[in-house]
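Hey all, quick one. A colleague (J.T.) asked me to put the heme C job into the tracker so the inputs and the structure tokens live in one place instead of scattered across chat threads. No bug as far as I know, just bookkeeping. Sequence used:
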Amino acid sequence: MKTRNLLSAVMLTALSFNVLAEDAALIPAHDAIKVLKPGEVSFRDDIQPILHDYCVMCHSPGGKGYAKSGLDLTSYEGLMKGTKFGPVVIPGNSETSTFTKLLTGTNRGLKMPMGLNASGTLDRQYILIMRKWVQQGAKNN
Ligand code: HEC
């Protein structure tokens, strides 16, 4: 009986290590700035590095997030232009901006960044900073 308990304890431990290892593998490299600083968010210093790490591989000419809608996230101008169906950023309103809405919820089954990991959600700090930037007027700063 004791041996069995010990065995299951060992197996449980092994299992949870396994889960941890898998989680670590799912976390993408964090090159972009992570800390939500007080004050004004900068497009160049805060937003562009996130777009660069998580979005432009699809949302630039030749990418699969560009083919249908023409959404080019390589520049401020591209982001503000939006898709060929219209803007994705509504300055001052992160709740109605598709750009920030798609980071936490879906629209026609889409959630961004597409296929990021099991839960499909960007680091919370990044989501908050992107929302804040839109709230502050989505400036080219
Ligand atoms: C693996 C590829 C991929 C990645 C990475 C990706 N997207 Fe997309 N995205 C798509 C595809 C595919 C579509 C739908 C077709 C289209 O709009 O071109 C789309 C659509 C969108 C749309 C338009 C949705 C609409 O309703 O018009 C927005 C906004 C968007 N993505 C933002 C982002 C942002 C922001 C990131 C990074 C945080 C990101 N995407 C990362 C592939 C991707």
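Adding what we noticed when we looked at it: Residues 54-55, 57-59, 64-65, 68-69, 71, 83, 88, 98-99, 102, 107, 110, 112-115, 122 surround heme C (CB under 6 Å). Residues 14-31 have pLDDT under 50 and may be disordered.
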